[in-house]
Design a protein that fits this description.
Layout (H helix, E strand, L loop, with lengths): L6 H11 L8 H26 L2 H8 L2 E5 L1 H16 L11 H16 L5 E4 L13 E5 H11 L3 H21 L3 H14 L29 H13 L8 H4 L2 H28 L7 H9 L7 H9 L6 H23 L18 H9 L3
Parallel strand pairs: 1-3
Antiparallel strand pairs: 2-3
InterPro entries: CHP03883_F420-assoc, Zinicin_2, Zinicin_2_N
Organism: Salana multivorans
Protein name: Putative hydrolase/coenzyme F420 biosynthesis associated uncharacterized protein
């Protein structure tokens, strides 16, 4: 069976197009890498203090941390995308669709490689004995660029970024079933759309990556990102309308995936801010500056908000932090931690806006 995407082509295209980051000399680069690594080591203990997830934080502290450039992130992101899509997706019935998908995915990831600060990849295998699965990737040129734009204190900003990403590592360590559950939810949606018959591939929609620059794309970035899924599913269509054309059962799966992402991102935001000025003296200034340029920091955000055409869900996605705060106000972090026990404890889509309903269903039932 052929893959639905030419993954190798995506890696080559993304690596060839990824732009270099801001200038930094060798001494500055060594200091940046050392500071990011130190922040990544320190962050899990702070997450444990806030959440009470001590064992999961200890596991996360033993995880693999990679400080990477943009091409290396794009390569890793391709692997994450492949893992989330699943290897059992049906072969597309349209000739050339896999190559089209590889071209467009590579182009999109090259563009996104200039924006991602960090990414916890729960699908990476353990790097050695005693090391948990998953890995944290910190994109050094992007961290440096945003740090300079915001005129942020370097150590404070590095720890702030690592707190968010290491909270994700703690989440997946606390819920070892979560990665497969999320992958299954997304794969169910993709399987319903890939290889639909009766539609012809239009390879003219492939971006001419040999002449189109990442900073000056030949097509609007949003359209390219949406067509990544389009080339996987129905070339020539409008993937931004995916939710509207999904059958009810897949639409429900997509809504469940958005609810999970709302929880994960909202929880990470709440934790990173709860650590507060004691560990990050300039946290309020960092948060205020960052909210002005709220970035798509994770591949999961990109998949749901951009590739799946989920801009209409952004309000719900931001409500994740409000959900977490609502639960914590009612039952504290010990009560919230029931969410990591089993899939049935994940918030339902309607509960993201109604944390009291989740508390009544999950915590009140115990």
């Amino acid at each position: 069976m052929k893959d639905a995407v030419d993954w190798d082509l995506a890696v080559r295209r993304a690596g060839g197009l990824a732009k270099a980051g801001p200038p930094v000399d060798a001494t500055g680069l060594r200091a940046l890498v050392a500071s990011l690594r130190s922040a990544a080591v320190d962050a899990p203990s702070y997450v444990a203090e806030v959440t009470g997830l001590d064992d999961a934080a200890a596991t996360a502290a033993d995880g693999t941390v990679l400080v990477v450039d943009r091409p290396r992130w794009a390569e890793a992101a391709t692997g994450t995308f492949r893992a989330m899509a699943g290897d059992d997706l049906p072969e597309p019935r349209i000739p050339g669709a896999a190559r089209v998908a590889g071209e467009q995915l590579g182009w999109a990831l090259a563009l996104l490689s200039t924006r991602i600060l960090g990414q916890f990849d729960p699908y990476a295998p353990a790097s050695g004995p005693g090391t948990p699965p998953g890995r944290l990737l910190l994109v050094a040129p992007n961290v440096l660029g945003i740090q300079r734009q915001m005129d942020a204190d370097a150590e404070d900003f590095h720890l702030w970024v690592c707190l968010h990403e290491q909270t994700h590592a703690v989440q997946f360590a606390a819920a070892p079933w979560l990665a497969d559950h999320l992958r299954g939810t997304l794969t169910s949606v993709l399987r319903s759309q890939i290889g639909r018959p009766g539609e012809d591939a239009d390879e003219a929609t492939v971006v001419d990556a040999g002449t189109a620059g990442v900073d000056e794309p030949a097509t609007e970035p949003e359209s390219v990102l949406q067509r990544v899924l389009g080339s996987l599913t129905r070339p020539g269509s409008l993937p931004g309308l995916l939710e509207a054309v999904l059958p009810p059962e897949q639409r429900a799966e997509l809504e469940r995936a958005v609810a999970i992402m709302s929880l994960l991102e909202g929880h990470a935001d709440v934790v990173m801010d709860a650590v507060g000025p004691r560990a990050i003296p300039s946290v309020r200034q960092i948060r205020a500056s960052f909210e002005k340029r709220r970035d798509d920091r994770t591949l999961s955000t990109v998949l749901l908000r951009r590739v799946l055409g989920m801009d209409a869900k952004l309000a719900q996605y931001r409500d994740g932090a409000a959900f977490v705060r609502g639960v914590v106000d009612a039952v504290g972090h010990p009560g919230l931690n029931h969410v990591w026990e089993r899939p049935e404890h994940l918030p339902r889509p309607e509960e993201i806006a109604d944390p009291a309903a989740w508390v009544a269903r999950v915590v009140g039932a115990d």
